[in-house]
Amino acid sequence: MIQAINHIGIVVRDIQSAQVFYIEKLGLKLSTVEVNEAYQVKIAFFPVGEVLIELIEPLNEDSAIARYLKEHGEGIHHIAFESDDLDLELKRLSTLGTPIIDKVPQPGGQGTQVAFLHPAAANGVSVELLEKNR
Amino acid sequence: MIQAINHIGIVVRDIQSAQVFYIEKLGLKLSTVEVNEAYQVKIAFFPVGEVLIELIEPLNEDSAIARYLKEHGEGIHHIAFESDDLDLELKRLSTLGTPIIDKVPQPGGQGTQVAFLHPAAANGVSVELLEKNR
């Protein structure tokens, strides 16, 4: 079951310069910076209430995020919804004919497991499903 | 002070068809549908934890959202951050040289007051500031 929004993913060219807005203008605090090998990105998290703002910087030119950046420029990339059972969620959505990119959960930030749906599933919105603490 | 994320605004051509994903695939519930005259849009809210998913449909071809839809297609449009004092926030951001679209707060959904910053302020991300219950 979907229980909350875990984070909003924002693609940027450079976390160092992009974070200035979130820290100095919005008054948020940087919580963690990580490298995610599965998606070949560096990610920085800024908590706001129960949600995280996630800045995403591509590690190299070959990552999907680098290709996204080249095509669309910087901006909001995805919404990550938190589920209590990611495997069950993926099985249910698959049965309903929902187009899924990550049919097998991938390692996300902060020890989570994640899977992206195809943007065609949600009128062009990139939806990530996420389960904490598996 | 920024305290939470109030909603994520998603531009769609037609709320009626777009909401199927959020209701049938994610299991969310529609809370309210409103017409917003200030922005010339119809909006539908779907609560997820403390955040709302806001689907936005242009009321006519002249609205800024209709122009956005024509240029960018459907997708995530903005993040709305909740502040305890919108006037103070706008004054503070203005002093810091932040480009602001709505220098005077406008009526948002559900009785809120809102103001959009210029996307140039935040690396292409459209940021809405919002105050509840004024």
Low-confidence stretches of chain A: none
C-alpha Rg of chain A (nearest Å): 15 Å
Oligomeric state: homodimer
Most extensive interface between two protein chains, with residue counts: A-B, 41 and 41 residues
Outline the fold blueprint.
The structure is a homodimer of 134-residue chains.
Chain A (H helix, E strand, L loop, with lengths): L1 E10 L3 H11 L6 E5 L4 E8 L2 E8 L5 H9 L2 E9 L2 H10 L10 E2 L5 E4 L10 E5 L3
Parallel strand pairs in A: 1-4, 5-8
Antiparallel strand pairs in A: 1-5, 2-3, 3-4, 6-7, 7-8
Structure report:
2 copies of one chain form a homodimer. Chain A is 22% helix and 38% strand. Chain A is built from 3 helices and 8 strands, in the order E-H-E-E-E-H-E-H-E-E-E. Chain A is of the alpha+beta class and 134 residues long. The model of chain A has no long low-confidence stretch (mean pLDDT 95). The two termini of chain A are 15 Å apart. An 8-stranded mixed beta sheet of chain A has the order 2-3-4-1-5-8-7-6. Chain A has helices at 15-25, 64-72, 86-95; strands spanning 2-11, 32-36, 41-48, 51-58, 75-83, 106-107, 113-116, 127-131. Chains A and B meet through strand 1, helix 1 and strand 5 of A and strand 1, helix 1 and strand 5 of B.
